C-alpha cells in the first residue's frame, strides 16, 4: 500500500518583481513515500530552494496544494504549520545554522526544547544521534570548536531529533571540501538505512545525487526523473 508522506499537487508559484510577474513553477507535482531517498538537482536559479521552502511550509504556493500526511499546508494557520514542521519535518542547510553559544548536544536537543518536552530520554536520544553521525566525542564542544564537517554532522543529528517523517536538506555538502563532503554523504546514506524516514536532498552536486535511488531534475519549472 502506498504511504505518501509529502506531496505537491499542481503547484504554481509566482513572485511579483517590480511590474513583472515571475512564474517559478506551473503545475508541478511530486509524491514522496515513507523511507524514500530522493535527490533534486538543478541549475542555480531553477527554483530548488523555492521548492524546498514550499515543501516545508515556509512559503505557500500561488495555486495548488502541498500536503504533509494528507493535510494541506495552505489550510493551516501559521501556528499549526509551525507545529507540523516541528513534528514531521527536519532540516539541514548548507550553512549549518547551529547556535554558537550552545554545545553540540544542546544544539541537537533544540527541537525537543521547542516542542517543550526535553527529558532524560531526549538527552539519551540526542547522544545516540551524535554517535550515529560519528561525533559523540564532541558532544560538549561548541560550534566554534568543531570542523566544518563536524558542524554539519551535528546539524544532521539535530534534524533527526524529533524523529521526523521527512528530512529536507538544502545543499548539505555545498560548504565542504571534497573529502569532507564524501564523508558527510556516507553519513547521510547510512542514516537513510536505519532512521526509517524520507530524505530529500536538494543539490547542484551531481556526485552527491548519483548514489541516491531516486533522482529528479528541476528544469523549466518541472521535475523529471533521470
Summarize the structure.
It is built from seven helices and ten strands. With 226 residues, it is α/β, with parallel strands linked by helices.
Explain what you see.
This protein has 226 residues and is α/β, with parallel strands linked by helices. The protein has a single domain, classed as Rossmann fold (3-Layer(aba) Sandwich). Helices cover 35% and strands 29% of the residues. It is built from 7 helices and 10 strands. It is globular. The mean pLDDT is 84.
SSE map:
Elements: E1 4-17, E2 20-33, E3 37-41, H1 48-56, E4 63-68, E5 71-72, H2 78-88, E6 89-92, H3 104-114, H4 120-132, H5 148-159, E7 166-170, H6 178-195, E8 198-203, H7 206-209, E9 214-219, E10 222-225
Parallel strand pairs: 3-8, 3-9, 6-7, 7-8
Antiparallel strand pairs: 1-2, 1-4, 4-5, 9-10
Helix pairs in contact: 3-4, 3-5, 4-5, 5-6
The poorly predicted ranges are none
Q: What's the CATH C level? A: Alpha Beta
- Can you give the mean pLDDT? 84
Determine the strand fraction and express it as a percent band.
Answer: 25-35%
CATH superfamily: P-loop containing nucleotide triphosphate hydrolases
Radius of gyration using CA atoms only: 17 Å
Strand order of the largest sheet: 6-7-8-3-9-10
CATH topology: Rossmann fold
Number of helices: 7
Can you tell me the number of structural domains?
Answer: 1
Largest beta-sheet characterization: 6 strands, mixed
Helical proportion, percent range: 25-40%
Distance between the termini: 25 Å
Structural class: alpha/beta
CA-based shape: globular
